[in-house]
Amino acid sequence: MSATPVLRVSALTKRFRGVTALDQVYLDVYAGQIVALIGPSGCGKSTLLRCLTWLEQPDDGFIEVAGKPLGRELMPGGVVRRHSRRQIDALRPRIGIVFQQFHLWPHMTALENVVRAQTVVLGRSRAEATRRGVELLTRLGLADRMDRHPDALSGGQKQRVAIARALAMDPALMLFDEPTSALDPELVGEVLTVLRSLAGIGMTMLVVTHEIGFAASLADRIAFMDHGRILEEGPARDIMAAPKEPRLRSFLDLVRTDHRITRTTANPTE
Amino acid sequence: MHFDPAVLVDYWPLLLQGAWLTLQVSAAAFVMGYVVGIAIALIALVPGWVPRLVTGLYVETLRNIPFIIILFVVYYGLPFSGIRLPAVLVGTAALALFASAYYAEIVRAAILALPRGQFESARAIGMSPMSAMRHVVAPQILRTLVPPSTNMTLTMMKESAVLSSITVPELTYQSLVVQGNTFAPFEVFAAVASIYWLIAVVIAEASRRLERRVGTAQAGASGRNRIADRYLSLVARRT
Question: Does any domain span residue B239?
């Protein structure tokens, strides 16, 4: 395990009009790891991702991406220095995010979605950006879909375009917000395959999900969040087999019972 | 008494001159008003209460005062600050000012009608706010902007008749001159009415073509829904 984590979150706090959405969150993600962030809805998972991309500004705490501070940093002498918008924007490509609803740009083709930010943000030449875009889309199995607009793509295809768009920026870390929830249930396996293939090339990932089974089969580590705090974090196997935190135990019980109920109601003849 | 358009024969050049000036003034006020309107709309979307308050005051002030009063305030107010400009420039500027408030609202509503995730995904990948506007937001709202902007532009073009009251020799001013010379008010104003009508029809048709062109350029790419479109056209019609 390398010395500097790809992502280091410390004491991150975010309040919305008095409601504490994130309460002193600490989290380290090391290179090549897949960390699944689980927890009941409203626990602050999505807020954490939005803070990590600075779409929401945390009120307190620090974020470091590959050793570089994002948004604000602690200077010698305990002074907190806020970063300018430009400094924040400069670090943003290092953190790729795949939104729940993908948010592809509908007026561009799939390829253009992947190419545009490379030219605008990284200043790559069009030829170079296109080469990279074609390479990524081909690797994600979209070679014959590159000239289509997002409206003409299936949900799974849209997701892979969104992944390619983020990967094209050469991020140090990829964030996924509920990657299975906007897709049909039978596509969950496909998402799993795609994310595993990313792990195969050494990509570091933080995946927010409420599907325990998905988290368990994908992640190296699992972090459980409730009421804006990370209550337990550890190797996926340990968390699933022997959860220590009572709230995590009841959450897992609840989710597992839910699964059994949906299964029996889905196949009443079995 | 009978309708005799023949009295106008000698005065056509005057009326056409007036019509030409009406067109020029409207075109200039459109360009100026739209530039200011876009700026106001973008400032209004900057987070924080100060930009919202300032732009809100700007828009509400201009929308809640009759145009003729805006015109008089500008026309008679400028000399107080030591600025003396030809009436045609003052009139055009006042017209642009008036229209800019409505253009600002049209642009702002169109931007807000776009799903927020579009702007956010552009920002999250590292684009600056202006780049995100340019590459992601603007191309998607162009088409939505055309119908309400056309409505407003037509209103503004017709409102330019008021400039006659500060001696700008546009179409209405010339019609008053011709009427004074010929003593044939009905013939004159009927002729002028049809000229205004013709100008409006030409603008409306041009806008329809523009809308179709923008439409094909972004075929299959719609980020908005019908309710938003409808709202936008209503906003414009409130003028």
Answer: no
